[in-house]
Every structure is written in structure tokens, then in C-alpha cells.
Design brief:
Elements (H helix, E strand, L loop, with lengths): L2 H12 L9 H11 L8 H20 L11 E5 L7 E5 L8 E7 L13 H4 L4 E6 L3 H6 L6 H17 L6 E11 L3 H9 L21 E5 L7 H7 L14 H6 L1 H11 L1 H4 L7 E4 L12 H6 L3 H13 L3 E4 L11 H10 L4
Parallel strand pairs: 3-4, 3-5, 5-6, 6-7, 7-8
Antiparallel strand pairs: 1-2, 2-4
Helix pairs in contact: 1-2, 2-3, 6-7
Length: 347
């Protein structure tokens, strides 16, 4: 295996932005195809090349090429004046009813929108909306206090915009869920925990619409911007800067001063009895796998979800946490949770 192919494979396996349906087997197949399998006249080399060719053919047969990703029904729909306030909307092709909808948030450091395999939801009669928001960088540039407020306000606005325009896309405005993976889970959890953000007196019709959702899901997530609490949950972790407008080290030193901002913008601080059901899923257990870097593991440890779950239980909020060897009742995984919650009858 060439060093370039190995490096490319490792990069694909370590990136947060890789598609959630890219498996290690798929990466292996991709890597094998990048290798030089040209036969030569040396018997040993020829045998090696023949073996590698068979490996490629076998891998291809066992793991056929993935189907093309669904194309958004409506792409780059603007939900606000900023260039990063964009939506991709995926609608079921044969729906005769108003569809429940999942809003899935992308990056908070770099503008991005990632839809979690829309096929698994479209086949169940649920729509998917991939949401791009303004970023922490945008917040720092425009001196927002704190920068994370740009991300959180946009998350609420995306829910309000979809609800206001639900009839246009045959969506059910009463069956809206929010979610995200890694950094994208933070705005989803904010929407779920912040309570009603509608402003009936606003001159903007979008802002007058409700921000309430039926549930929230967090995949490999970090549900807090409180530097002290996150280190209580995951000792040694450093994450989230410049959400509060400064480095992590500075936010830890200035925590008492920053508490009003933490109380207003951190999902764990906002959690209350009126929050909807919340589901956490992690692909690693409570022990770091040897192949995973320590910094990566700390940022994506299930200990975050377990810490949040304790707060949820104290507040009387239903909260599930799934990770290897720790299944959840009623739901196979986060995707099953979303579909069941969205398709269930409104209370």
C-alpha cells in the first residue's frame, strides 16, 4: 500500500465531515482501487498483482458502489439575508400527506450543510432539511457577544422559516425535529433546550413563528460551551472556542465573568422540564479505542451525553444515550428515534 493511499484513507476515517454512510470496508475498497495492480513479467510480481486484482474484484462484489446521493428537491434556499443562511430541502417523492421534517445542522466553524443520508428518512415519509448557519468566525468578525449567538439564532430562525413556509413544501409544521453530528449538534440542542423563542411583536414575520420542536438528536456531540462543566464530564478536554469570544484557556479563567453568557447560550444551562425528548448516540464506548487519538476521543466521548442525561433526569426530561454495549429501550439508534418521534401522533 502506498504511503499516499494510506494517508488518504486515514484522513477519510478521521474527518468529522465524512459522509455517515462511509464504512471502513468502503474505505478499504477505495484504497485497493488506488493501488498499482499492473501485471509484470516477473513471476512473483505477477502473482502479487493477480492476488491484488482478485482482492479488488472481491471487494467490489461484496461492497458494490454506493447509490448516488439524493439530490435536494430545493437547493440553497435562503432563510435570511446572510450568504451562509442556506437550506437544502429533501422531500419524499410520493407523499400525499403533510410530511414531518428533520432539520440537520452543519458546521459552526466553517459554513457547511450536511444531510444525514436522506434516503433513510424519505423512505419513511419524512422530509430532511440540511441547514447552514453563520459561523463562530462570522460572529468574531462582526464582534457578536458572544460569537456563538450567531449560530444559535440562525438555528432558531431555520426552524421558524420552515414552519412559516411549511405549506409551500407540503410539510407538517407541528412535526419538526432537529439534530446534528459533532459540532452541528450544539445548535440543535440549543433549539430544544432554549424554550419558545418566538417574538410576537417582531416586524419580521419569520421571528413571530414558534421555535418548538418534537425532539432533538445529537450524534457524537458536545452539549455544552461551559468550560468547567465539560471538563467535569471529560477531564482534560478543550472544545468550543471561540464560542464565548476567547480561547478555551481564557474562558476557563474568566468563567465567573462569562456565566451570564453561558447561562443564556449553553444547552445544558438552558435545559428545563419543557424540553422535548433528546437522544444521544456515540460510536465509541467509555474506553478509548487504541486506534483513536486521545484528543478526538475526548471531543466525541459518550461521557458528554451521560453528563447531560443526568441533568435531564433532574429536570424531568426524557433523554436517551446509546453507545457500544449500551443500547436504548424503544429505539434501535438515533435514526430510528427520529422516525418514530416524527411519525407518532401529536400529543
Amino acid at each position: 500500500m502506498s504511503s499516499q493511499a494510506l494517508d488518504a484513507t486515514q484522513a477519510a476515517m478521521n474527518t468529522d465531515d465524512a459522509p455517515d454512510n462511509l464504512t471502513s470496508e468502503g474505505q478499504l475498497s477505495m484504497t485497493l482501487h488506488t493501488m498499482n495492480t499492473r501485471p509484470c513479467f516477473c513471476p512473483k510480481s505477477f502473482c502479487f498483482a493477480l492476488v491484488m486484482s482478485c482482492a479488488v474484484i472481491t471487494a467490489g462484489a461484496a461492497h458494490p458502489a454506493a447509490a448516488p446521493k439524493p439530490v435536494p428537491t430545493y437547493a440553497d434556499v435562503s432563510y435570511g439575508p446572510h450568504t451562509n443562511q442556506l437550506l437544502d430541502i429533501y422531500l419524499p417523492s410520493k407523499s400525499t400527506e403533510f410530511c414531518p421534517v428533520l432539520l440537520w445542522f452543519g458546521g459552526i466553524w466553517k459554513p457547511a450543510k450536511h444531510a444525514p443520508d436522506p434516503g433513510r428518512f424519505l423512505s419513511a415519509g419524512c422530509a430532511v432539511v440540511a441547514v447552514e448557519t453563520r459561523t463562530l468566525t462570522d460572529g468574531m468578525t462582526e464582534k457578536a457577544n458572544p460569537p456563538v449567538s450567531f449560530v444559535m439564532n440562525d438555528a432558531c430562525r431555520a426552524v421558524q422559516f420552515i414552519r412559516l413556509n411549511a405549506a409551500k413544501w407540503n410539510l407538517n409544521p407541528e412535526r419538526i425535529a432537529v439534530g446534528g453530528s459533532s459540532q452541528g449538534a450544539l445548535p440543535a440542542l440549543y433549539v430544544a433546550c432554549a424554550g419558545e423563542r418566538a417574538d410576537p411583536k417582531s416586524s419580521d414575520p419569520v421571528e413571530r413563528v414558534s421555535t418548538k420542536v418534537v425532539c432533538a438528536g445529537a450524534h457524537r456531540s458536545q452539549p455544552s460551551i461551559d468550560p468547567k462543566r465539560m471538563q467535569e464530564w471529560v477531564p482534560g478536554v478543550q472544545w468550543g472556542a471561540p464560542a464565548l469570544g476567547c480561547s478555551f484557556e481564557e474562558s476557563l479563567k474568566r468563567r465567573e465573568e462569562l456565566l451570564p453568557l453561558i447561562s443564556r447560550w449553553s444547552p445544558d444551562a438552558l435545559l428545563n422540564k419543557n424540553a422535548p425528548p433528546i437522544y444521544f448516540e456515540n460510536n465509541w464506548g467509555l474506553t478509548r479505542p487504541e486506534t483513536v487519538r486521545e484528543t478526538d476521543y475526548k471531543v466525541h466521548s459518550p461521557a458528554w451525553g451521560l453528563g447531560f442525561q443526568k441533568l435531564a433526569q433532574q429536570a424531568g426530561v426524557t433523554c436517551y444515550v446509546k453507545y457500544p454495549d449500551h443500547p436504548t429501550e424503544k429505539y434501535k439508534d438515533i435514526w430510528d428515534f427520529f422516525v418514530q418521534q416524527l411519525k407518532s401522533a401529536a400529543p
